[in-house]
Amino acid sequence: MNGLHAYPLSVKAVHNHRQSPTPLAGSTVEFTRPPCARVCAGRTPPRLDEETVEQRVAARLDRQEIFKRWPPPFTTFTIEESVLRRPLGGWDVHYEQLEALLRFGRLRSVELQVLPIDRKEHPSLGGPFIMLTPKGKPQVAYLEVQHISRLITDPDEVRILAARYGSIRAQALTPEESLTLIEKMLGDR
């Protein structure tokens, strides 16, 4: 993870924009395993053995522990609506994942926002990223695309991504509207 592992338990704020499944938290084991297995071991190179896939799934789920400590970090997530509509893992897994996101989005320390499909463009067409604010340290950013990850510590680069994140949040539905949309998706099933 190129340095990100040093931050998760010491952060006071997490801001995450996703264009693919799933946010750092709110993921079920059933939802996390299919994309990891498909990308890491199944249909898409590089193919990894089952043990490595399980280790990666466990590592992703372990990162959720940060949200169980007190006080939890202030957390914002923006996620593309198209991701929420894709039944990755099948409809039963998809339904469970939407329920998990709904529970996560209702936590007091979390603001979950959906970026609607009808937005013609937004400042993060270049990909997903995470902004972390560690205790007693400057804010950093983390990029992970196509198995390439990069921890960004340069203040100017971090400021640019922080500004992009602010613009994304401004174009997204409010947290209340986002939860209502997820509830509607659950009702449509």
Please, could you describe this protein's structure?
By secondary structure, the chain is an alpha/beta fold. It is built from 6 helices and 6 strands. It has helices spanning 29-42, 50-62, 81-85, 91-105, 155-171, 175-188, and strands spanning 11-18, 74-80, 110-115, 129-134, 140-145, 148-152. A 6-stranded mixed sheet has the order 3-2-1-4-5-6, with helices on both faces. The radius of gyration is 16 Å and the shape is globular. The protein starts with 10 loop residues before the first strand and ends with a helix.
Strand content: 15-25%
Biggest pleated-sheet summary: 6 strands, mixed
Assign a percent range to the helix content.
40-55%
Shape: globular
N→C terminal distance: 36 Å
Instruction: Please report the total strand number as a whole number.
Output: 6
What is the chain-wise order of helices and strands? EHHEHHEEEEHH
Strand order, main sheet: write it out: 3-2-1-4-5-6
Key features?
alpha/beta, 6-stranded mixed β-sheet, 6 strands, 41% helix, globular
Summarize the structure.
By secondary structure, the chain is α/β, with parallel strands linked by helices.
List the helices and strands and how they pair.
Blueprint: E1 11-18, H1 29-42, H2 50-62, E2 74-80, H3 81-85, H4 91-105, E3 110-115, E4 129-134, E5 140-145, E6 148-152, H5 155-171, H6 175-188
Parallel strand pairs: 1-2, 2-3
Antiparallel strand pairs: 1-4, 4-5, 5-6
